């Protein structure tokens, strides 16, 4: 795939102090902390947030407009062991549990749980281990299908959104190893494949057929000198809007950078531009990426350098051309560790695995127009 041009923009940093008053009330049935290292997050059509707690056998449902916890769903029997991904389609909430615990990176667990978005009740569990799929890492759902990536077995499973039945499993030759994200728009599904140099695989969401492989690259000489060579940017996270697919890449546009973002045409699969900047490492250690069709939001985790710890921020880009809008600094101490995010175009919610007074998690709500903090939902 040809790279047409590289777009590099100066960084604008907005430092925000998160010294906000507690804005959280919990129902009487909620007898424990609402979060324990929250990671993946999704928003349903009722205006409720669904948050997967990675070190907690459960899911937290929050009313987005008020920040109030609606319920905690923490039954281990429902399949919630180290939930690593969450997606919403209609009244279906789909949760995948990773639980990759073995030294070689494999897992013997592959549970998908479906919840009713209105009641929070368990609809069904689907044991993908019975289909040879374990070590689940991410999930995306459209009106017809649910797509699940598995980081321990180089596999992608397709389920029916209506019945939960496994439609097909893709494995082997495509080498899907450790994809941290997956995205579908109902017509296409995009799967990052960072470990084998293949870039990102695009499939038809209708037939499952492979359409193309898109490999974001840059060309630069290594730090030791010599001839210029290609740098595979290794996409790990992906999001899509009506016009573009956006990948959050592990590698920057130079050997000295720690992250970049690639903009790709939905219809053509052609790379429009790759965005990267060494200034303030504003795309370093990417943890998630989301487009609301107006802006693209990127979570940047901690980066440790000789000058100390940097990162813990959210980068906002314009969805039409990738221009930098702002960088929002989140951390106000050692406990901040942003991981996941979701946006409805009006507000943006970021999960923080280290936030809260007890250091085990919070959700930060930002105004999508200004980047200002609206509230912090925490214990």
Written description of the protein model:
The structure is a single chain. The protein has 379 residues and is mainly β. The chain is built from no helices and 34 strands. It has strands spanning 6-7, 13-15, 38-43, 48-53, 58-63, 69-73, 83-89, 92-97, 111-116, 122-127, 136-141, 145-150, 155-160, 166-171, 183-184, 188-193, 199-204, 210-214, 217-221, 228-232, 235-240, 244-249, 260-265, 271-275, 286-291, 295-300, 303-305, 308-310, 313-318, 324-329, 338-343, 347-352, 362-367, 373-378. Strands 1-24-23-22-21 form a 5-stranded mixed β-sheet, with no helix packed on it. It has a 5-stranded mixed β-sheet with strand order 2-30-29-26-25, with no helix packed on it. A 4-stranded antiparallel β-sheet has the order 3-4-5-6, with no helix packed on it. Strand 16 and strand 17 (199-204) form a beta hairpin. The radius of gyration is 20 Å and the shape is globular. The model is unreliable at 1-31 (pLDDT under 50).
